[in-house]
Amino acid sequence: MSTLDWAALPVGEIAAAHPGATAVFRRFRIDFCCSGQRPLAEACAARGVSLDEVRQALEQLPQAVADVPQEPTELIEHILHRYHDVHRQQLPELIRLARKVEAVHDDHPEAPLGLAQYLEETQDELLAHMAKEEQVLFPLLAAGGAPMARHPIAAMRLEHDDHAVRLDNLRTLAHGLVLPAEACNSWRALYSGLQQFIDDLMQHIHLENNVLFPRFERA
Fold first, then answer.
1. In which element (H, E) is residue 44 found?
2. Quick check: 16 and 212 in contact, CB under 8 A?
3. Coil, strand or helix: which one is 10?
4. Where is each Hemerythrin-like domain found (predicted)?
5. From its phi and psi, is residue 145 left (phi > 0), alpha (psi between -120 and 50) or beta?
6. Using an 8 Å Cβ cutoff, are 64 and 19 in contact?
7. pLDDT digits (tens, 9 = 90+) for 189-216
8. How much is the average pLDDT of 152-173?
9. Measured between alpha carbons, how far is 148 from 79 in angstroms, rounded to an integer?
């Protein structure tokens, strides 16, 4: 792997080809899902992180086969069960916890005020987005795709960009997911669950943008 020209490779391509790369990118806050077309050097510069540090972390990854289905129909099923179903479980609980934390700690300077409402809006948008994929795009792709598939794919990519902005806003409302020393168990559970949701949604978008969609866009 050290012979690769990491700097010139698109981050989405790296994430798709090298198991563990997504964890490296999350650690350095590099967007590998919606900005996956960016070369690694450009992505590092945009985030203000050292290209050498990221390259070193990538080169230390074990060379293994990603545990993700490669056949399109199986990949779609994986996305549906691992991400769509999971998001539908995650968000109601996150909303409940956020409401509780805001109600109990509304006078705390680091309380995530406004987070519950923003999570509700995020849930509405994500549910609508997933319904479009489940009812229109995925059946079309599972049937082999067609030239017309490029249009709903392009629409989903644009909505993925909106989701990425929402994730940044969630982090901001949650003060970077940094807990105050006196945070209660509900507050800790909220931030832990929110971090898991962010990681899951980023991986979900990555699999669609960088693995599933390109196969049909090239056809």
1. helix 40-47
2. no
3. strand
4. 77-215
5. left
6. yes
7. 999 999 999 999 999 999 999 999 998 9
8. 96
9. 22
Alpha helices in 105-184 (DSSP H): 115-132, 138-142, 150-173
Given CA atoms 55, 191, 82, 75 in this order, what sign does their dihedral have? Answer: negative
Residue 36: predicted pLDDT: 85
Averaged pLDDT, 19-42? 88
How far apart, in whole angstroms, are the C-alpha atoms of residue 114 and residue 77? 34
Indicate the pLDDT class of residue 145, thresholds 50, 70 and 90: confident
Phi then psi dihedrals of residue 63, to 5 deg: -85, 105
Query: Within the chain, what is the greatest distance between any pair of CA atoms?
Result: 56
- Residue 8: pLDDT above 60? yes
Q: Are 98 and 116 in contact (CB under 8 A)?
A: yes
| Distance between CA atoms of residues 199 and 65, nearest Å | 20
Q: State the Rg of the chain over Cα.
A: 18
pLDDT beyond 90 at 61: no
Measured CA to CA, the distance from residue 213 to residue 215 in angstroms comes to 5
The CA distance from 175 to 10, in Å, is 30
User: What element of type H or E holds 75?
Assistant: helix 72-79
Cα–Cα distance for residue pair 150/206, rounded to 1 Å? 17
pLDDT over 70 (residue 55): yes
Averaged over 89-97, what is the pLDDT? 95
